[in-house]
Amino acid sequence: MELVKEALASLPEGLVKKAERFFDGQDPAHDWQHNLRVIGLCERIGREEGADMQILRLAALLHDIGRAEERRTGECHAEISARLVPELLTEYGYSEEQAALVQQVILAHRFRKERPPTSLEDKILFDADKLDSIGAIGIARAFAYSGVIGQPIFSDDPSVHTPAREYEWKLSRIKERLMTSTARRIAEERHTFMELFFAQWKKELHGML
After folding, report:
1. Engineering a disulfide at 138: which of 18, 97, 134, 180 sits with its beta carbon 3.0 to 4.6 angstroms away?
2. How confident is the model at residue 111, as a pLDDT?
3. How far apart are CA 31 and CA 148, in angstroms?
4. Using an 8 Å Cβ cutoff, are 78 and 52 in contact?
5. Which domain of life is it from (predicted)?
6. Long-range contact list for 147-150, CB < 8 A, 24+ apart?
7. Where in the chain is the domain with CATH 1.20.58.1910?
8. How far apart are CA 10 and CA 45, in angstroms?
9. Domain span(s) for CATH 1.10.3210.10 in the chain
10. Which residues share a beta bridge with 112?
11. CATH class of 133-209
12. In angstroms, rounded to a whole number, what is the distance separating the alpha carbons of residues 82 and 38?
């Protein structure tokens, strides 16, 4: 948590408090703690990769502030978050140019064919957000979110989504999508842990252990 503390200490205290309030009532897979973990990963990766840390810290802080509105409206939370950036940053003395750079990083963290991550800061936020979806944390988040939306933790019906299917279809492939060498290195152990966990999971489900 030291990296998180250092990152937050470099930002205006009022901005951090405002950002945190956007997470009130969020589900445990997308709450303020998720945001803090992404900030910490951005700090670690950004320092190693030589990123513009001011822009990266701001983007990490604000990248998910649109989640609550997404839940209400269905609009992409990255679009919502980016739209809120200029007003928030202007209040704390940041320039229009800085706000535009932060917006770009936030928009690119949701990979789309028409808007892939291009700058180093884009790639780092993308990687940090994806890293929090794998490993022990990623497994915990998958099970927590299944509970929030009422999915079973196991089903014989192949049309029913479960945490194990989330792993098979999405989480197991994240390691190959990461863009920075630092993130790929971090992902190795997390990926291996997931392989071991779900191998054990299958054995226990079938009464082999």
Report:
1. 134
2. 64
3. 13
4. no
5. Bacteria
6. 148/27, 148/28, 148/29
7. 133-209
8. 17
9. 1-112
10. 115
11. mainly alpha
12. 17
Q: List all residues 6 or more positions away from 104 whose beta carbon is below 8 Å from its beta carbon.
A: 119, 122
pTM higher than 0.90: yes
pLDDT tens digits, 1-24: 799 999 999 999 999 999 999 999
- pLDDT tens-digit readout, 104-125: 999 999 866 567 899 999 999 9
Angle between helices 53-62 and 2-9 (to 10 degrees): 100
Tell me the angle at which helices 77-91 and 96-108 cross, rounded to the nearest 10 degrees.
160
CA distance 157 to 146: 16
**Fold category of 1-112 in CATH:** Hypothetical protein af1432 (1.10.3210)
CA 140 to chain centre: 14
CA 84/CA 104 separation, integer angstroms: 13
Helices (H), the chain: 2-9, 13-21, 32-49, 53-62, 67-73, 77-91, 96-108, 120-131, 135-148, 163-169, 174-177, 181-205
Position 44, amino acid = R
User: Which stretches of 85-182 are assigned E, i.e. beta strand?
Assistant: none
* Contact indicator for 4, 41 with CB cutoff of 8 Å: no
How many angstroms separate the CA atoms of 182 and 17, rounded?
Answer: 30
